[in-house]
Automatic annotation (TrEMBL):
Record keyword Oxidoreductase present: yes
InterPro entries reported for this sequence: 4Fe4S_Fe-S-bd (IPR017896), FAD/NAD-bd_sf (IPR036188), FAD/NAD-binding_dom (IPR023753), Metab_Enz_Cyan_OpOx_G3PDH (IPR051691)
Pfam family for this entry, one: Pyr_redox_2
Lineage: Bacteria, Bacillati, Bacillota, Clostridia, Eubacteriales
Name the record gives this protein: FAD-binding protein
A molecular function (GO) term: oxidoreductase activity
Organism: Acetobacterium wieringae
Keyword Oxidoreductase (UniProt): yes
Amino acid sequence: MKRYDLIVVGAGPAGLSAAIEAARCGMKVAVFDENAKPGGQLFKQIHKFFGSKEHQAKIRGYKIGETLLAEADESGVEVFLNATVAGIYLDKEVLVQIGEAMTHFKADTIIIATGAAENMVTFDGWTLPGVIGAGAAQTMMNLYGIKPGQRVLMLGSGNVGLVVSFQLMQAGCEVVALVDAAPRIGGYGVHAAKIARCGVPFYLSHTITKADGTDCVTGVTIAEVDEAFTPIPGTEKHFDVDTICLAVGLSPMSQLLKMAGCNMVDDPRRGGQVPLVSENGETSIPGLFAAGDVSGIEEASSAMIGGRMSGLAAAAYLGFLSEQDKDKRLADLEIALDSLHQGMFAPGSKGQTFAKTDEGIAVSQSLLKKGYLDDTDLERFFHRSDQTDKKSGIRPVIECTQNIPCNPCQDACTKGCIKIGKTITALPRIDANSICTGCGLCIASCSGQAIFLVDEDYAPGYASITLPYEFLPLPQKGQLGTALSRSGQPLGTAEIIDVRSAKAFDHTTLVTIKVPVAQAMTARFFKPATHAAGQ
């Protein structure tokens, strides 16, 4: 029986982070994961993360995964893949299936970081081929390069549903609608806005009632629901689709913790059956820790911090780290974690409805119910700097109207045009005393693709708008297409006048279009003349 100081179950963001911190303290660490590739969900996540520098904001998930794997290797962590932990027993012994063999391993401490599993909902035809989870769709697209379908309907408007809907369009799929039984969009408004301006409609207070097809999905029927979430007869709507994608939440995979005898609690705010843990992730069993989604569903940035905290706590438990050093390092991590736990989307705010932002501005109801800001919202949230306009003509327009933990735009602007302050959930604002040079770094750094550069003095009667663009093929200078509004409605002909790509932009291309000056504050997407939006 092989022995380790620490065994980590799960090689996702939390597990790897925990293993790295423990190994750096001098512990002999083994990580077991049932998958063929380590990194968990990170390698499916091609979008840029939110947060601040400390949270690896504006870095794409798969790149964070590559960094963690390199750090684990440098720290001497042993990672076992295709290794399923089948049991956990007294005295911190685990049974692992590797290939055909069942092998016992023993450790002095264990961290369970098994993550979460996708929830499903049932409806007539839900077992047909073509009904898949959003995570499965991500795996097909981003790991194996396979399109899940051609015409897709997404159920669920949380961040997973919103992010995967956008990635489906990036893969060349047509998302025909985004449906949710809730009366409001559940995820970040900036994610919803990316989808709405591509022309995808939102059907809130609706649910799926039937999937059509005999051997596979050929269509889907949705219906409006009442306050008890019961479908209302006569409100049915039908869509011809070949794929139904479900993003209806996650449940912690806490079976090993139950098997170990940890004290558990049923906590809907944390996703279901989760262990009772200390602030550092220690369970009711001394030396047994839980990290990441298995102890409560959160974003990957929070999972990585929680994993690091558990790794340090495990090291201190065995004496590899002094209590004084542990407390100092944990204090810094707690500050970083606390900053992610602020604002409208904090774990403690689940289920709450906010009427105003932290700044006292009325929340956009259009954004919550339709996925895009309306003209009234623009008047409330945005202001112009006459000084900036007169000196350069170019000004940033920031369409970020919710208190989301994110501030890369502030760091990206070398001229100090964009201010957020120390609280990363504060709304960005434009500094009237700074001059925008039009470099576009703020656009590329924005994880929500919510920043645009507008020049209403580009040419007599015309304005230029610089947009974030992450679709292929890239448009070319001189190409004509259609300008789309925030709601995805066509506004008229637009011409590409500039296309900028740079290493610093990290695969976000800056596309500048020329439109009539009257569309300067309404045009927010470019649809090529020969390609559907999203291709």
